[in-house]
Fold:
Amino acid sequence: MGLGSDMYRQQILDHYKNPRNYGELEDPTFTHIGENPMCGDEIRMDVKLDDDEETIERVAFSGDGCAISQASASMLSGKLHGKTVDELLEMDRDDVIDMLGVDISPMRVKCAVLAEKVAQDGAEIYQGELDVEKTTTED
Amino acid sequence: MSHQHLEALDVAAIREEFPILQREFDGQQVVYLDNAATTQTPDPVVDAMSDYYRESNANVHRGIHHLSQEASNAYETAHDRVAEFINADGREEVVFTKNTTEGENLLAYAWGLNELGPEDEVVLTEMEHHASLVTWQQIAERTGATVRYIRIDEDGRLDMDHAADLIADDTAIVSAAHVSNTLGTVNPVGQLTDLAHDHDALSFIDGAQAVPNRPVDVKAIDADFYAFSGHKMAGPTGIGVLYGKRDLFEELDPFLYGGGMIRKVTFEDSTWGDLPWKFEPGTPQIAEAVGLHAAVDWLEDIGLERIQAHEEELAAYAYDRLAAEDDVELYGPDGSDRGGLVSFNLDGVHAHDLTSIMNDHTIAVRAGDHCTQPLHDKLGVPASTRASFYVYNTREEIDKLVDALDDARQLFA
Ligand SMILES: Cc1ncc(COP(=O)(O)O)c(C=O)c1O
Structure:
């Protein structure tokens, strides 16, 4: 029997089983929560900015969900380190899928992009450009 | 329940009528275990619909020409056939809708919105599908009525003592699923209906998961209203049925307005046509009605009791095989008195991941909350994986499902 789809490559499973930057920051610059209502995935992203209020110094995530959503959050938390808030806001779903490095089946894209969306919404709320309590991914 | 006297289904012959079951993805034949979401459609049903389009297509009711007469006849006869199928008193008691959801909404809007008030209670079960739960929640919000839920016990059965407590003089309607699409529980809908009637309340039964796989007799249940969907019973999408007792349908105002449903229209006012057309305005789903008729014929040819026996056998087999796995959590009652579906979780693997892995083996199952979010909250899980069976499924297919669990275990170990 073959060992599963391309979606569950070693890297994804490794990040799922050993998530990086898992937890909550003590003094985040902003924090935001989001969910995939249909899957029950829930993710909280904490972001700490440098003194320049531009550069991302640390990211932590916490939450529950499928391997794709959790691995995506874990990888994103590392990738965002050193980036600016603008660079975060410029990311799109292709960047996330490239980061994951596997084919994501259409129905699972929502899981893949949840962390990115939560981080972006958190940043926009911080900048005063968005007003939502909780991010949800619909289709 | 024992069905030992019934002849087993000739599954091999049945499968020949479903070319889709031969489909392969990456060289693997599809194992279709998502029948609670929608069933596959046998050739005779597809043929009946394409014959209709090739030979008889026209608009109904209003035409004098031959084709319209044929189409009208086919459309109206489909009502008679469905009435006979569920033991209703003729076409007047059978309204064609889009699906079960529309049946729920039709009653909720046509009756609930007009009749409910702040002193009224709507009694549902904790295992209701969102089709009923969300609909009654919304109507309650607009009318000030209160929604109450009959509890389920640890085995996933309704707590009938609680039902007897809840259903009281303030109850205006009891709306309950006949068979739960998540737990597989078969509810005592006759008893619930009796409780409702004892308190002058109406009973609405959601038969979406019952009509496809067991004999249903609306008179024996004494339900006031009963809804189901064609696409879950070997029929086409786009058509469902709302059964209602004739005297209740007669009192009820229409839900949607338009052509084909009126008796007389002036610039000032309109009067409504006969049942069931009063509830079917506009050009209806004619080909789908023809398909539903063919599906009913097809199911009765096989025999609903035999279908039920087959489903119970598969459900019990799947339940036992999965229950033998230490790391599998199952939901709903054990034993054989369950509908043909099993919902479960594999420890340490999210239902969506498990379902993706199943898909790698071309096994079609469903992950999610199955439109019963509050029930999943109560079960304490965000989602589950559901395997659901129909006439064409086999034990070998269930074996494949159980084997595929190993793959998930290895990946996620
Ligand atoms: C118990 C139950 N009720 C209602 C529905 C809704 O059916 P439909 O989507 O055909 O309206 C379903 C199917 O998903 C169901 O299982």
